[in-house]
Design goal:
single chain; about 425 residues; 22 helices; globular
């Protein structure tokens, strides 16, 4: 089955249809056409999942926010506050991407917006293209880890873990990762001032004008507080909080005078496209995994791992390397739906926390997003590259940030409490 998957994927066929076709053909060959009822039942269960309702709502929220000029105002404020810092605009880009991650949870929205707004601004001021491109690509991936993340929802549903716990587990790691990016930019521009203009080249603004720019943070804070605050206060489930987020995004668009029927229609169309893609992959992957499990594949793999005379950390490292390798070819939704049902029993048998492993999984997904040659953020950014800048410069620009992600992954592997203490604290307070 996995050999067939690789062969068909190399042909360029869509992942959802490759997974479904292999599952259907395998089912018919092994048990006959009547066994296809299992695939029908799996599909029905997927399409009636209440937890999956959060996905179109969070995507709709992100799409409305992207079209409501809030991101433009945010960048204007960050440009004002960070311009007199070494590498300040690149630092401000990471800060905005962190805010956008907490607002939308969708990677494409942050990368596309920063590619349109921040990239021309940094290049016109003399920033080295590789530094600017790397900051945008890496900062955009924070939406995978920082809640509310659509990828986290898919992982939690697949792993049968509380979505709220997965959200809380991603907050501290996401902020640490953002801090790592900012630290790298500050140190790199201090060592090599040629990468960014000197702060003295920017004319200082009066404090009153700088404070006035901060009003652009009000609407993002309103949306973030509405979504995450309603979850952690126990007022709403993560699915219900997605509806709160859509309402907050619509009110924000109304305040910025961007709310209109054409804008809502365009946002709804984008949501339909993204949601359909995710659900088709989910249906195909569930059919594939159900056949794999029914044939004894999962049990055989678990038995094989248990008989290995190797440290559990070596086995964990091997699984992480598999995830990073798959990220060269597959999107993170497909990797989750393919690997989590197979890997989680092994994680449990090795005595690891599935919640902690989920955060490691999210970081490998971030690494996949910026890994050449098929990282998604690289293609998001390619569409808005100005003349004279090729995809090769994007590849070179993201590599330092890739190694930062790898270092943070090792940090969380060595110190699991950095991941688990916040979910545990929130659980104790709830009691």
């Amino acid at each position: 089955m996995f050999v067939s998957l690789i062969v068909f994927m190399l042909s360029g066929a869509g992942l959802a249809f490759v997974l479904g076709a292999i599952a259907f053909i395998s089912t018919i060959l092994l048990w006959g056409p009547s066994a296809l009822i299992v695939a029908v039942l799996n599909t029905f269960e997927t399409m009636t999942s209440e937890a999956l309702m959060a996905i179109p709502l969070y995507v709709l929220m992100a799409s409305i926010l992207q079209k409501s000029a809030i991101i433009d105002a945010l960048y204007d404020a960050m440009e004002t506050w960070f311009s007199r810092l070494n590498g300040g605009l690149a630092v401000g880009t990471i800060v905005i991407c962190t805010i956008l991650a907490a607002m939308t949870g969708v990677v494409g929205a942050a990368v596309a917006a920063m590619g349109i707004l921040a990239l021309p601004s940094m290049l016109s001021r003399g920033y080295h293209p590789q530094l600017a491109l790397g900051a945008i690509c890496a900062g955009g991936t924070l939406g995978i880890l920082i809640p509310p993340s659509v990828v986290t929802i898919v992982y939690a549903i697949t792993a049968q873990i509380s979505i709220g716990k997965m959200f809380s587990a991603g907050i501290v790691p996401g902020l640490i990762l953002a801090g790592g990016y900012i630290g790298y930019i500050l140190v790199r521009t201090w060592i090599n001032p040629e990468l960014a203009p000197k702060p003295s080249q920017f004319e200082p603004l009066p404090l009153r004008e700088k404070l006035a720019k901060l009003k652009s943070l009000i609407l993002p804070a309103f949306v973030v507080f509405g979504v995450l605050g309603s979850i952690y206060a126990g007022i709403a489930t993560p699915t219900e909080a997605a509806a709160v987020g859509v309402l907050g995004a619509a009110l924000s668009a109304l305040i910025t005078r961007r709310l209109s029927m054409p804008m809502l229609s365009e946002a709804a169309t984008d949501t339909l496209r993204v949601t359909a893609m995710i659900l088709w992959i989910t249906i195909g992957a569930r059919a594939f995994i159900s056949v794999f499990v029914a044939t004894g594949g999962a049990d055989s793999l678990l038995d094989f791992v248990e008989t290995l005379e190797a440290s559990r950390w070596i086995i964990l490292g091997a699984m992480v390397m598999v995830l990073i390798f798959l990220g060269l070819f597959l999107d993170e939704i497909g990797i989750i739906l393919l690997c989590v049902p197979v890997f989680l029993p092994i994680i449990g048998a090795l005595g690891f926390d599935p919640l902690w492993f989920g955060v490691l999984f999210m970081i490998t997904a971030q690494m996949a997003y910026i890994t050449p040659p098929f990282g998604y953020t690289l293609f998001y950014l390619k569409g808005v590259l100005p003349e004279g800048i090729g995809i090769g410069q994007v590849y070179r620009g993201v590599m330092p940030f890739f190694f930062i992600q790898a270092a943070v992954l090792v940090l969380f592997a060595l110190f699991p409490s950095l991941v688990t203490w916040l979910p545990e604290a929130l659980t104790q307070n709830a009691r």
